[in-house]
Design a protein that fits this description.
Distance between the termini: 30 Å
Number of strands: 7
Helix content: 10-25%
Radius of gyration: 15 Å
CATH class: Alpha Beta
CATH architecture: 3-Layer(aba) Sandwich
Strand order of the largest sheet: 6-3-2-1-7
CATH superfamily: DsrEFH-like
Number of helices: 3
């Protein structure tokens, strides 16, 4: 039996204006549905993908950010946000979607999926990945 590979999806682009954010989310959900070990990282303008309260009415595009709340249902619980990217954009973890997963070992207790990490910590996470896809 083959070893499960660790997939890291790095999101660097703003959520709207290009197809990158939507494509990343689709690939992540498909991979998780096939039991991939999925980790997400949000850096640079990619942090805007998970900002709560996104309103896309002015750009006449469908708001897909609520889809991120389904990640926990796909057992995606490793979501890393680069601290420096948040700070540079005047954001904090409180500005981000409340993404949770349920721990069946602890009577389905809800736990945070988002972990704010330094750029150095994120570099270690990237080094640990078997496959990295950047969007």
């Amino acid at each position: 039996m083959s070893e499960i590979k660790k997939f890291l999806y790095v999101n660097r682009k703003a959520p709207y204006g290009t197809i990158y954010a939507w494509e990343s989310l689709e690939v992540v959900l498909i991979g998780a549905a096939f039991d991939q070990d999925v980790t997400l990282a949000f850096v640079d303008d990619g942090v805007y993908q998970i900002v709560k309260g996104t309103d896309t009415a002015g750009i006449e595009m469908k708001n897909f950010s609520p889809t991120y709340t389904a990640l926990g249902d796909y057992d995606i619980k490793k979501i890393y946000v680069e601290k420096e990217s948040l700070e540079k954009r005047g954001l904090t973890v409180d500005d981000l979607l409340d993404l949770k997963w349920e721990d069946e070992d602890e009577d389905w207790a809800e736990k945070d999926s988002i972990h704010v990490v330094s750029s150095a910590e994120l570099a270690d996470i990237m080094d640990d990945a078997d496959i990295t896809l950047s969007f």
